[in-house]
Amino acid sequence: MSGIEFYITHTCIKCGACAIDCPVSCIIEGDTQFVIGEDCIRCGDCYSICPVGAVKMRVHQDIKG
Ligand code: SF4
Ligand code: SF4
Fold first, then answer.
1. For the whole model, what pTM was predicted?
2. Ligand 2 centre and the CA of 51: distance in Å?
3. Do residues 26 and 37 lie in contact, with contact meaning Cβ atoms separated by under 8 Å?
4. Which of the residues 31, 49, 57, 64 has an alpha carbon 20 to 30 A from that of 9?
5. C-alpha dist (Å) from residue 13 to 30, 42, 56
6. What is the 3-state secondary structure (H, E, C) of 2-15?
7. Which ligand has an atom closest to residue 24 CA?
8. DSSP letter string over 6-64?
């Protein structure tokens, strides 16, 4: 399985849309931007909904065997 991770960059304008939309409520408001927590189920909703494209996705190359 590929390990996909979503994260929020400094371009976040703290609109809060992602936090409201997240099905597991794992996005919290930080000092300068919103932050994705460990309970993320990688649904991609925040990635799709962010109006400024501040949510990014990266793929881990951690496949073993
Ligand atoms: S990918 Fe889904 S579960 Fe993870 S932070 Fe975004 S909205 Fe929440
Ligand atoms: S939707 Fe985008 S701009 Fe709005 S709080 Fe989330 S990451 Fe920040």
1. 0.90
2. 7
3. yes
4. 64
5. 11, 21, 14
6. CEEEEEECCCCCCC
7. 1
8. EEE-TT-----HHHHH-TT--EEE-SSSEEE-TT-----HHHHH-TT--EEEEEE----
For residue 38, the one-letter residue type is E
Closest C-alpha to ligand 2, atom 6: 18
45-62 per-position pLDDT tens digit: 999 999 999 999 999 876
pLDDT over 80 at 10, yes or no: yes
Strand, helix or coil at 65? coil
Maximum alpha-carbon separation in the chain: 42
Q: What angle do CA 65, 6, 20 make, to 5 degrees?
A: 140
Q: What is the pLDDT of residue 61?
A: 76
| Ligand 2 centre distance from Cα of residue 31 (Å) | 13
- Determine the pLDDT at residue 64: 61
